[in-house]
Amino acid sequence: MHNIVLIKGDGIGPEITESVLKILEAAKIEINWIPASAGMEAYESSGNPLPDETVALIDKHKIALKGPLTTPVGSGFRSVNVALRQRFHLFCNMRPARTLPGVPSRFGNVDLITFRENTQGMYIGQERYVEGDQNRAESIAVITREASERIIRSAFEYARKYRRRKVTLVHKANILKYTTGLFLQVGQDIAKDYPDITFNDMIVDNTAMQMVMRPETFDIIVTTNLFGDILSDLASGLVGGLGVTGSANTGDKHAIFEAVHGSAPDIAGKGMANPTALLLSALMMLEHIGELDSAQQIRKALYRTLPDKEVITADLGGEGSTSKFTNAVVSQLKKITGSE
């Protein structure tokens, strides 16, 4: 029995979470879901977007599955996602982007993974107004050798374990010579320990251009926090958007798997939400806890469902609903497992 903390999230979060739970239940995986609260819902009920009880549960059980959370733009509390990553030292954000059957996209051969350093860079929260009239603001980015080594080595270890062919380190060392220059230097040193894996480095602006011109040339991208945030979303756009890409945040002791798209309050409760991103995140979670066969079976069921326009949601070009989509995946899963 796996004990896993469950944060349903805001907006469409509860709907897509229930969808994923139904699919995992059909796979007969023994999971004890431990409910917890975070985000706007928690803020409105308790005044705290990240309650101490939720932090304690994640700390105890080590693994969480999380739906999308609402973060106010420009005011209010800081991102709960960022707070969770820093609190539990989830230094590695891994975002696969793969071409999916039946999902409209401009490319048919994308299979890349972004490894994003998750705890440093521009997202450490050290920013301020320099003058009282708020006409000048500054933000501090911090890059350390230790954090750089952790994320870069994680990318190489993953490449070796899963027989990926190449690691591309993305930086802006021509301008940010000390911060991303340090990241590049560390990557060049670590690459020497992995002679079986092709290594190259690329300036971030060139990377963005190459990704939309020749995405098939990328395999694994490893980069700093801000660049990883941007490029991983770009990678999602290559395969159909944030609604069809999963995400894992892992550290030495804890792991949180989440849908990275927004909470979409405008469609909440209307049965229009696409559960694919959270489902793919849940499959990464299953692989993390050793449920490899179940993850493979569910992925196969999802892939068989996605081309069916009658059941998939409108954002994927379909005519279905959240419930129709979910039921179709469950039906395909039962065929695959012979449990009909």
Walkthrough of the structure:
- This is Isocitrate/isopropylmalate dehydrogenase family protein.
- One of its GO terms (biological process) is tricarboxylic acid cycle.
- 46% of the residues are buried.
- The chain contains eleven helices and twelve strands.
- By secondary structure, it is an alpha/beta fold.
- It has two domains: 1-94 and 240-340, Isopropylmalate Dehydrogenase (3-Layer(aba) Sandwich), CATH 3.40.718.10; 105-236, Isopropylmalate Dehydrogenase.
- A ten-stranded mixed β-sheet has the order 2-1-3-12-11-4-5-10-8-9, with helices on both faces. Strands 6-7 form a two-stranded antiparallel ribbon.
- α1 crosses α9 (276-288) and α9 packs antiparallel against α10.
Spell out the key features of this protein.
single chain; 340 residues; alpha/beta; Isopropylmalate Dehydrogenase; 2 domains; ten-stranded mixed β-sheet; two-stranded antiparallel sheet; 11 helices; 12 strands; isocitrate dehydrogenase (NAD+) activity; Isocitrate/isopropylmalate dehydrogenase family protein; IsoCit/isopropylmalate_DH_CS; magnesium ion binding
